[in-house]
Amino acid sequence: MTAAIGAFERMDGRLAVGGIDVERLAARVGSTPFFAYDRALVTQRVAEVRAVLPERVHLHYAVKANPMPALLQHLSGLVDGFDVASGIELRNALDTPTPASRIGFAGPGKSEAEVCQAVASGVVLEVESERELVVARDASVATGIAARVALRVNPDFTVRGSGMRLGGGPQQFGIDSERVPTALATLSDYGLDFQGFHMFAGSQNLRHADICEAQRRTVELAGRLGDAAPGPVRYLNLGGGFGIPYTDRDQPLDLGPIGENLHELMAGAVPKLLPQAQIVVELGRYLVGEAGVYITRVVDRKSSRCKTFLVVDGGMHHQLAASGNFGQVIRRNFPIAVANRIDAEPAGPVTVVGCLCTPLDLLGDNVELPKAGIGDLIALFQAGAYGLTASPTAFLSHPAPLEVVV
Ligand SMILES: *Cc1c(COP(=O)(O)O)cnc(C)c1O
Fold it and tell me: What pLDDT digit, counting tens, does each position of 287-338 carry?
């Protein structure tokens, strides 16, 4: 059917996750619905990225894409560091063997307690505003530890091709680049330990040329801003934004040219403009999105005026993105399959809906699936990132799903 299904193994006509067929996995988990993350697919994906990245570029994992602790433990052994965006994500990252010095804490609206946590743990605080610099100063005084800070910069350019823009123009993220020199001037007065810069122009980009351009312009801008810094730039987080295909209209991202571009930067602009900087690329969905699948069981099959519906025990409260209500402008079907009849021939279009009492709870609209009925298992792919934790689990008061790493 689609490439997404191809990434998973098949076993005796059934989908397999981590080498276990889906019926057996469902029995092992104990109930449906559930999310399953394939450890080997995550490992493989990190290796693919590593193969194109220059050796000296660090690869970070953006925890908000999927913060499940067991997955973080696995990723801790694969990536160089973590990027977190809340005090709880920070605690979960610190529970792994990844050293605090390899963790960055970004995100607007950090509380005083979160800033204090960051300073005390020794992670890089990615400062999002002038106010946060003052909070960092106070936390440094209170703890007697000079906060390690990087300024998150809202660049003076935008990146085309992003599904979600997080940089350029007016933004709640970062300090506008034209105000960065003023912010840098306060760092020494505040007794803060300047590390460098962080820029993140946009998410879910499938166009390598746009990502390359953003990386080049980020290095140039950081080089210019670094002239006004109280010390050398020792850290530059280039962001990420590598997208994954969600629908049959999406072409997978071509990593090759991104790797070449980074090799060029590491041979030219970086040693020239930022000779002491550790370059970091931070990826969330690209590392885990395609390694996850949401499994839900059919509880009803009904026809209504010539249309066939499969009603499942899960829904948009667990996997909002597949319903089209998480950032999509036009709803398109995510890859979907009958997991326990993965090789069977399509038997006509059905509409797969969740168990919530709202027409928004649509998981597959007129999809070609093999004949399926009560008890069959439906798999929704591309569920490894922004799945469970990006969904309104309390909506309609159903039980929360389980998550397993296999
Ligand atoms: C969300 C986020 C990411 C990860 O984005 P993906 O699209 O999942 O790769 C990276 N960096 C920052 C600062 C973020 O907020």
Answer: 999 999 999 999 999 999 999 999 999 999 999 999 999 988 889 999 999 9
Question: Does residue 253 sit in the same domain as residue 343?
Answer: no
Q: Is the CB of 201 under 6 A from ligand 1?
A: no
- Is 160 strand, coil or helix? coil
Cβ–ligand 1 contact at 239 (below 6 Å): yes
Task: Give the residue, by CA position, lying nearest to ligand 1 atom 7.
Answer: 203
Of 217, 250, 283, the one marking the end of a domain is 283
Q: What is the mean pLDDT of residues 213-227?
A: 97
Residues 150 and 29 in one domain: no
- The verdict on 264 and 304 lying in the same domain is no
Q: Ligand 1 pocket, 323 CB below 6 A?
A: no
- Listed in sequence order, the residues at least 6 apart from 319 whose beta carbon sits closer than 8 Å to its beta carbon are 35, 294, 363, 380, 383, 387, 388, 391
CB of 282 shorter than 6 A to ligand 1: yes
C-alpha 273 – ligand 1 centre gap (Å): 25
Q: Is 203 in the pocket of ligand 1 (CB under 6 A)?
A: yes
Q: Is the predicted pLDDT of residue 2 greater than 50, yes or no?
A: no
pLDDT at 3: 41
Same domain, 235 and 299: no
Q: What is the pLDDT of residue 21?
A: 96
The values of phi and psi at residue 105, to 5°, are: -120, 105
The answer to whether position 368 is within a domain reads yes
* CA–CA separation, 112 and 119 (whole Å): 11
Domain assignment present for 48? no
What separation in Å is there between the alpha carbon of 256 and the centre of ligand 1?
Answer: 21
Question: What band does 5 get if pLDDT is binned at 50, 70 and 90?
Answer: low
pLDDT of residue 136: 98
Domain that holds residue 300: 3-37+290-405
Residue nearest to atom 14 of ligand 1 (CA): 62
Last residue of a domain, one of 219, 252, 283: 283
Burial 54-88 (b: 16+ CB within 10 A, else e): eeebbbbbbbbbbbbeebbebbbebbbbbbbbbbe
- Same domain? For 166 and 304 the reply is no
* Structural domains of the chain, count: 2
Residue whose CA lies nearest to ligand 1 atom number 4: 284
CATH number at residue 270: 3.20.20.10
Does 357 qualify as catalytic in the annotation? yes
